[in-house]
Write the structure tokens for this entry.
Amino acid sequence: MTEAPTDQPIRLGPAAAKVLRSIWHQKELLVLGLMLGVALGWLALPKVLSSRSTYDATVRVRVLQPPTDAIVKIPPAIGGGGDEDPAGASPDVLKDVAIADSVITQLRKDKKLKVPDSLTETLLLERLTIAPLEGTGYVDLSFSDGDRRLASEVVRRYADQFVNSRNRVEAKRLKSAVTSLEAYAETLPRPRLPGGADPAQEVRDQIRAAKVSQAVTGAPTSVASQVTVTTNGPPLSRQVTLALGLLLGLCVGAGAGLLVETAFRKVVTPTDAEDASGLPFIAGVRKGGTRRTGLPVIDRPFSPAAEDYRRVATALERQGLGSDIRVLAIASAESGDGRTMLAANLAHSLARQGREVVLVSSDLRRPQLERLLGLGQGPGLAETLQDDPIPAVAMLVSINDHLLVLPAGMPSRHPGELLASKRLHETVQTLRQMGIIILDTPPARNSADAITLSSVADATLFVAKSGATRMRSVLEATSGLRRDRIRQLGVVLVGTSSPILRSMSVRTDLRDYPDTELEELEPPAPPRPVQFNPRPAASGPEPAATKDDQRTPEVADLNKAAERNRRAAE
């Protein structure tokens, strides 16, 4: 009895590592995000959080029974537990519409305060909280608002005006009561018997008690404390806001880095090239030697770039270039990826090994190969593919004894229509007999010409430029070639300065030779050059004429320059 297969657990380690690596590739954005977080935590977040907080401004007021009440026992204005207990009565007696209206008028005159138009005396009294302290004559007046200063000013001004208003009213009341009592005492009869009850004296004693109460307790209403403000809302300390800002900035930087990596990430390392293309890494070409000249194999043969181009040629020969691969298309995703430079230097490198090479400038839209090789504008591939074709061999330009170039020509029709004709296949088959054919194709993302040219080739070599080619472009271009079942040998990374490329390219070359030492890997012996006449006769077999007889003075000058360069390199 066999056990049912169990599901394999999902491992998040590699995925997390890939995400972290993607973020680290954009570490500049991560640093910018942290700097933004510091600014947010120090400047913006305190204001944002404060705007969502409310401030409770509180002032304590002492509200006692007035001296007049010492004459006649009257229940206290606030509270009912005694002279010092205002808690028993309703605190609403402290809310005065006239005082609230006066406070708002004063606040609006203060230019330093921002008083909203919606604040009215009714709203002020609704938001004014009165809390008597049980067993005492103290009352806490509180006002809540999102503006700290406004809340403080409202409760302070209201308390001051309430105290002044009540003291003024009670002072008038006491004075009126004393005057009335004194006049009343004068109207009372004197005692008829010595030692008898004196009604007038009892009234005077009440007046004396009221004055004593006033002298002892002072004003019946007074402000007992300064305004205190408490915050209702999130914490506003600098440490907390700075920590929140750093966390927010880290998230923004990481998110921006992932976005850039997904949409705009550039190919930098050989691993990036392999991940984006899904192809094996062939070799890398360093920057050194390519800045001064586009042909380091000829002009600077001992430069690192020239050595790297020779390494590319050797790696391709091990994969069958020159034997089962006679036509090789050089493709790239975008313009400026080093495709033309690789095609030209690869052709020169193979030609210097004695192989017969035909380099075809097949980018009919924006040919660059002629300018790199110093050739002028003339007939070429476009004339071969037109309705009244000219044989391709009649337009070949000799660069040296082993290298011929077929220019792009001057298309009279749409380049896509010319390349889609069956003459392209016939032309390639004709050139195939002359040696190795290298096609410099147009950018694969901009048109379908690259796929058309790659379809007539035996294999395609993809090129990416370090720090310039986008990974998304490489993925789209190689996927398009893969959908059309086009054989792709691998990817070459040009314009890199990484020192690990040399070791990686060696490891790539050894994949097909796991049991062979590096020193034993020698390039195969070049085949015997194929003899041909670059300009055939109008009809019949080609005459046995020498090459020099068919060359123009311009081509002869090019041959002399190439010969001088070859001697200088040797």
